[in-house]
Design goal:
Blueprint: H1 5-18, H2 24-36, H3 40-45, H4 53-67, H5 72-76, E1 78-81, E2 84-87, H6 99-110, E3 118-122, H7 128-136, E4 141-146, H8 149-161, E5 168-172, H9 177-181, E6 188-193, H10 208-213, H11 227-236, E7 244-248, H12 254-264, E8 269-274, E9 280-286, H13 290-303
Parallel strand pairs: 3-4, 3-6, 4-5, 6-7
Antiparallel strand pairs: 1-2, 7-9, 8-9
Helix pairs in contact: 1-2, 1-4, 2-4, 6-7, 11-12
Length: 304
């Protein structure tokens, strides 16, 4: 006889617990909702119902994948980010809740810049940052660059899924190379990026979900975890229209990233924002002090 949903959930939670998964009961329910195509309320209401064999097998398959410490977002095939659902698989990092702070910080600036201004997400991965900005700020020209063809393919699938493929440019290339090739580098007003920031020597200490499943290219930041920050800031130094840079940073790299910013722009301004855990998470860089930029803009208006 096929098991009831209640028995299936209890067994799944035990399997996940023994595998070392955090919150096994909650994750078992999420996996059931995905496999059985039920809402949270329906799972609660149907706990005493018998689950047909094919659906039970599908659920068990998902449970075994999660027990192997495959990231939950990969098992489900999607992840929620800034209130929207995005496709997710091992071609790119699973979106983190902390990255929503990066989008929030960038969004405050994006709301106030002129229509048509170019905003670029460097290293877009699954595309959640660039696509969220495009959805929330349709007056902007949003670009995304990605060196991994596989990640770029996933980002483009997400652009189709979110119905913004006609409003964003997602291009393969290193850092700002696609913008330079398009002749738009000097029109970039905002740069947003969540670069790889794990020190190479620390990769082996990461959780199995990260170490075994997520792409190393999106994790490895070099010996100090700063390689991509150095390279990106060096390229940003040549952007004539650049107003602000927003960077996600690792739990102990904010100070080093701020120092790199001041080396590049000695008179620039920086701000560090903590996440909900109090960890420094987002570094905002204004290469040219706001007061000076506004003064120069005023002079330019008067001259015209």
């Amino acid at each position: 006889m096929s098991p009831t949903l209640q028995r299936m959930l209890a067994h799944a939670a035990q399997v996940l617990r023994e595998a070392g998964v955090d919150s096994p009961e909650v994750e078992a329910r999420w996996l059931a909702e995905e496999a059985l195509r039920l809402s949270h309320a329906e799972v609660l209401a149907q706990r005493d119902e018998v689950v047909p064999g094919p659906l039970s097998a599908q659920f068990q398959s998902l449970v075994q994948r999660r027990a192997a410490r495959e990231p939950l977002a990969y098992v489900l095939g999607h992840a929620d980010f800034c209130g929207r659902r995005f496709l997710c698989d091992r071609r790119a990092l699973a979106p983190r809740p902390e990255t929503e702070l990066l989008v929030e910080a960038a969004g405050a600036t994006c709301r106030d810049i002129e229509p048509g201004a170019v905003v670029v997400d460097v290293g877009l991965g699954s595309g959640v940052i660039a696509l969220t900005l495009a959805l929330e700020h349709p007056h902007l020209a949003v670009w995304g660059t990605e060196i991994s063809p596989a990640a770029l393919q996933l980002a483009r699938a997400n652009a189709d899924f979110q119905r913004v493929a006609d409003r964003v440019r997602l291009e393969e290339g290193s850092l700002l190379q696609p913008l330079r090739e398009a002749g738009l580098a000097d029109e970039v007003a905002v740069v947003v990026s969540n670069p790889p920031y794990v020190r190479s020597g620390d990769l082996k200490t990461l959780q199995p979900e990260v170490r075994k499943w997520e792409p190393r290219l999106a994790l490895d930041g070099g010996p100090e975890g700063l390689d991509l920050y150095r390279a990106l800031l060096a390229e940003c130094a040549g952007l004539r229209g650049l107003q602000t840079i927003f960077l996600e940073v690792g739990y102990d790299t904010a100070e080093a990233v701020v120092a790199l910013a001041h080396e590049t722009w000695p008179t620039g301004e920086t701000q560090v924002r903590p996440d909900l855990a109090g960890i420094s998470r987002v570094v905002t860089i204004c290469p040219q002090p706001v007061a000076r930029r506004e003064a120069e803009a005023h002079v330019a208006v008067e001259a015209s």
